[in-house]
Design a protein that fits this description.
CATH class of the largest domain in chain A: Alpha Beta
CATH topology of the largest domain in chain A: Rossmann fold
Strand order of the largest sheet of chain A: 1-2-6-5-4-3-7-8-9
Oligomer: homodimer
Number of helices of chain A: 14
Structural class of chain A: alpha/beta
Order of helices and strands of chain A: HHHHEEEHEHEHEHEHEHEHHEHHEE
Strand content of chain A: 5-15%
Number of domains of chain A: 3
CATH architecture of the largest domain in chain A: 3-Layer(aba) Sandwich
Shape of chain A: globular
Largest sheet of chain A: 9 strands, mixed
Chain lengths: ~375, ~375
């Protein structure tokens, strides 16, 4: 379905199957979508997954999430008020549903009405200056007053300042771990304040303690949920710059707050402006830039059965071998691979899916793939 | 002549006539060029000027600069080492010669070799912060090391810091008054240091004490001499922003140094970046931007006799009356005026010149004119 339908809901059986599929080994959001589009449903994909992974050369049988495990996670989530929502369901941020790797099920908690309102992300250094804190507060407050929901990462520094200044108007915290594993621990109070009129979202299972690699992954949800991302103070190579890069890849507006060239906390934001981000000094700069975008209808991605791209049922062994031989540690684009393999696109895509499910393929930005 | 010729020099008689013409009432650089192009020489223009001004309705006879006055100024200039140079002559900054209202005679002093090298202007607040001073110093020093001559206005604050940091490599001070009327007075030492390996230029007569309105006029020479203008710290509505605007009108690159939105001294520079100026944080940003421009040959404007545009010798009284009736205090463009007057362009241009010499016409940027 391509049109947002507020009454659209997965059945409980579908939701359990969706959760099982996304929690199974080597299934990320992109693979999830490929499988469901190919086999018509998550339940059918679960049946076929072990065979695909075996053909891809998995060293050991893929571990599938069991029905009992999925039911347990759904129950545990429900107990602390977390709903596991599919793209298109009420409470799933509409813009987030449009990114390539939107979580098939998103854990959402709090006042889910805010998820439907236009969001602006405000991110920045954890060790921000007093001026940075103050600017983030003023900006979050003023954008909140204009009706925007502030989305951020519940971190120390800029994130915290942005959430605090917008709790009254509704703000959304995006978590890198499970809903019951808040990081940093001292922000449990902040989260409680956020949840009063706003919400929190996570794609991770209950009980998941966030690791370093989960933060960049989480950052794509911050930028994806928003129509624009404001970076306030960011040093060279900081996490906020990853969020800005993802925002640009997702077609989101990127805004940066300038600072003195002699202030190392402004290096990242000044660089962003050099690279084309919009310099802002006040909320009005953001509002003027996003005004034309706000009312643009959100085009939701296709979800269930829809007739997918043509796939081949099982590629010939010689095709598979030729495609695998072309893959290596250096990322290569799908188009190049199809051309070099001289094989039908459907065959190449199926082999890549097999390899992915076997845990042998890595997907990169821009549709590039490499062997692990 | 359109091609730069290092051996090109005015004769002494020509230089005296040029000085007489530009020092006469109601003759600015644009009128000067119109008159010389029309009458073929400054000496002929001096003969015809009183009659043109009378036809334009001058309330009293135009005061012409006498030959004795011009000779005195040339001698006074020579005594303190100032040469009065025409565009195209050695020592006249080549880029400055390309602006619409380039001074027909420029007083230049010091090491005139630096005038031939590519220049970058550095301007900014008189009451700059310590960080602003430091940034201007580093930038001027690094650009000087790369071979650029730093041009600025000898003012307190950023100007001073930029000159000081580049005295060894050659820097150019552009004065708002005569060469013997240094402003501010306490910068006589700075000027002496500048002149050791660099130079100073002014279009004003010897003895002219700079008034407030002379500074914006001077600023067009700072931007005009440079291939790019860097604004370091500028508050809202500051003089440096006038220089930036002139730079943009002259087709020069405009660079601005960012600052915190909470720092009022960065309001002007952040605004410039919002309007399209290039954000810079180090000399390399400037160098990379101007590198493609540096070796572009400078196209000098036409100077003496060249067959000019066709002019009519004396417009009919009815034409003159109709054109004057169309003019008022609101600026109007030449093209609109020609269309509305339904008169040949040559007639309109001649009437405008008459009015200008009578002190009744004001010329604005973008070719607009109004009655005074």
């Amino acid at each position: 379905m391509n049109i947002r339908d507020p009454d659209r809901r997965l059945s409980e059986a579908q939701r359990t199957d969706w959760l099982r599929l996304i929690r199974s080994d080597n299934v990320g959001p992109r693979t999830f979508r490929s499988l469901v589009n190919h086999f018509g449903s998550a339940s059918e994909a679960l049946v076929r997954l072990p065979d695909l992974a075996r053909r891809g050369g998995a060293s050991r049988p893929s571990r599938l999430c069991t029905e009992a495990e999925a039911r347990n996670e759904l129950a545990a989530a429900r107990r602390i008020g977390v709903s596991l929502l599919a793209p298109g369901e009420a409470g799933y941020p509409p813009h987030l549903a449009t990114i390539d790797d939107a979580p098939p099920l998103l854990g959402a908690r709090g006042n889910l009405d805010v998820m439907e309102r236009p969001m602006i992300a405000i991110v920045g250094s954890r060790n921000a200056s007093g001026a940075g804190h103050k600017f983030a507060q003023t900006l979050a407050h003023d954008l909140g007053d204009t009706g925007f929901v502030i989305v951020s990462g519940l971190a120390r520094g800029i994130d915290q300042a942005a959430h605090r200044a917008s709790v009254a108007r509704g703000t959304v915290a995006v978590l890198a771990g499970g809903h019951d594993r808040i990081y940093p621990l001292e922000h449990e109070d902040l989260l409680a304040a956020v949840l009063e009129s706003g919400g929190a979202i996570s794609e991770m299972p209950m009980g998941h303690v966030p690791r370093a690699r989960d933060f960049p992954r989480r950052n794509r949800l911050i930028s994806g949920a928003a129509i624009g991302v404001v970076v306030v103070e960011a040093a060279h190579r900081s996490g906020s710059l990853i969020t800005a890069r993802m925002a640009a890849e997702q077609g989101r507006e990127v805004f940066a707050v300038p600072g003195s060239p002699l202030d190392p906390r402004a290096t990242g934001t000044n660089d962003l402006i050099k690279q084309g981000a919009t310099l802002i000094t006040e909320a009005a700069d953001v509002i003027n830039a996003v005004r034309p975008i706000i009312r643009r209808p959100v085009d939701l991605p296709a979800e269930e059965p829809e007739p997918g791209e043509p796939w081949t049922e099982e590629p010939a062994a010689s095709d598979r071998a030729r495609i695998i031989a072309l893959l290596g540690p250096a990322p290569i684009g799908l188009d190049d691979l199809i051309r070099m393999a001289n094989a039908p696109p459907a065959v190449v895509r199926t082999v890549l899916l097999e390899l992915e499910l076997a845990g042998r393929l890595e997907r990169h930005g821009g549709g590039l793939v490499s062997m692990m």
